[in-house]
Amino acid sequence: MSITSGRVRSGQANHSGGGHARFLPPAGVARDLAMAQLANSVGDGAFIVTSALFFTRIVGLSTAEVGLGLTVAWLIGFLAGVPLGNLADRKGARGIAILLALTTAASVAAFLVVRSFPLFLVAAIVYASSQTGLTAARQALLAGLVEPAERTRIRAFLQSTVNAGLAVGAALGGIALHYDTAPAYLTVFALDAVSFLIAARLIHRVPAVAVSVRIKGEPRLAVLRDRPYAVLALLNAIMLLFMPLLSLVVPLWIVTRTDAPDWVVASLLIVNTLGVTLFQVRTARTVKDLRTATRSIRYAGVAMLAACAVFAVSAANLNATTAAVVLISGAALLTLGEMKLASGAWEISFGLAPADKQGQYQGFFGTGPAIARMAGPALLTTVVLGWGPIGWIAVGALFLGTSCATGPAVRWAARTRAVNEDAQPSLVEENAA
To answer: Is the pTM value of this prediction over 0.70?
Structure first.
């Protein structure tokens, strides 16, 4: 099969037709990938909402054991991203994505029966590593099946789908929390495991893509020697520190520094989820190449600085209603920054990666969320809650400075390689799975 077989090309965007075109990618490969994302994001949403209570109340672990186990698991998952992405390059992105979806399902199913810390740790390591590798394999699959000019747009559809799925999953998890019984939690985790089985089946429907052959003398993990790309991955990881803001830092800020009502915490997450679901595709339309991607990230830095400034203002002597409006405005600005950042980062991560090494490059670039989740909570709570409004301004300045540094880093990376997205290296077909 040719490397372009089954690819989504420019001009196919209108095939979905009607009102679905705004929220669903074109029928075929892109839609199958989106439905696979939807399936397991529903499971992820339920997992995120219920995991802490499930592991303590059902599995019987202490909070310290849960924290230690998940930290170790995600650290190993972070290290596994590049090797698993390289495996997708060498053995076929579709087959590896299916395998990792199945191992994720198995690890979630294991949580249903494990009742000791050592077994929990093993299951958690398999879960985190599989999730990280699955992300890299999916990105490599997307790069192999979608024309370069369409990748960012299709990726935006997938991100919108993910947020919709997370919202549905969170609602299911909320039902389990309401009942707060062992059967309710076990049902949610069982559904999570099934969601990854469904995702594996949907991934199996898409065409196989070509695999690469390692040239003798070439490093196995070339991305680890690509300094410009490493700098861009680091800058992206710094920008992704926005992730713990709405889920952790702002809720603590609301409780300790403002007079806003408690319901505002949930409203901020709703604003973020709905915003990305409804507007991510539209936001990504302006990103078509490395130049527009750099500009999008610079806009993200401005929006995030503005959001942090608004959050800082919420500590003023405001009544409950005014404080709520200010905080919701800050969440909207942060969501805009998130969408601008994502649109630019996708274009950069795909456009500067060699066509035959998308798996390992996406695995490396995809370590940003893991770094943000590991370093963000301690760093941001110390700066924001410790320094107050000045801390918010410092965090916003970090976002703006990092976004401005992305442009020179992209130009440096472009000078070190031939950025020709239509050129394809010599590849060998992947055997049909």
So the answer is: yes
